[in-house]
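Recall that a protein's primary structure is simply its ordered list of amino acids. Everything else, from secondary elements to tertiary packing, is in principle encoded there. The following example makes that idea concrete.
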Amino acid sequence: MRLPRIALTSGEPAGIGPELCAAVARGAWPCELVCLGDRALLAERAASTGGSLVLHDYRRSEAHAHVPGELRIAHTALGAASQAGRPDRRNASYVLALLDAAMTGAITHEFDAIVTAPVQKSIINEAGIAFTGHTEYLAAHSGIARPVMLLVAGSLRVALATTHLPLREVSATITKALLREVLDVLATDLARLFGLARPRILVCGVNPHAGEAGHLGREELDVIAPALADARARGLDVTGPVPADTAFVPAQLAGHDAVLAMYHDQGLPVLKHAGFGRAVNVTLGLPFIRTSVDHGTALDLAGTGRADPGSLEAALALAIEMANRRR
């Protein structure tokens, strides 16, 4: 069986993404690894972080198992010269072009999975391009209405019902229809990508104490509990709603394969405490596999050689595992 071909986007050129790609390329990986980015930039950042790295041009028609210390480059030119730590809005289109190329390749089966280095959302927006994150961008441009963000740290898996929203908008956004869609995507992809035949999903409430029988809010009674009853009637193994402050205790986690949190900062602080620097962001519901790091562009570390590649290594390892399971 051929090795999976993985597209690795190098992300914000002023951030740590390019040097993380170089660091990862020095390791041994059971795949074909193709890095999307500006060749000269990648060579510069590889040199600045120490250690040799041989760059080759990527050709779709040629299959090459990854060799430690070498990296195949699908070149896209920068919009403007990049300086470590100083994002330039003229490179916003370049960053999105890398995502577009990776996405097109994944949809056409040129690539078996996409792994993404971090982007600088603010600079993309300052360039006049509406952008809330990788998850939403990849979903919108591949025609998917309901992507689901899943963070993985070892055996801990935390999915989000809502992602990048102001807190005041969360409650109104959580509807029975939304939870039905999210639970269906989560259950389907836990089976398809993680090999969990009938995944056990623990669902958090949105209010303290899961609403305290309606005394601290009615979302659990009026929305979440009915949505879970519907899911159980359709054959899903779901439990809840449970208070978020007890959802992550070991006894609860031991009996479940994933936790569904209602909003970003309900689930992610626990996940990142458990595995920051080794956690992986997975986008569920897409027509292709996409994993990413659990951190941002770390502009203060860019070009210093001190950035930890652990999360990108974990993202690549999980992408390879999922790609092999799907084929």
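The mean pLDDT is 95. The first helix runs from residue 17 to 25.
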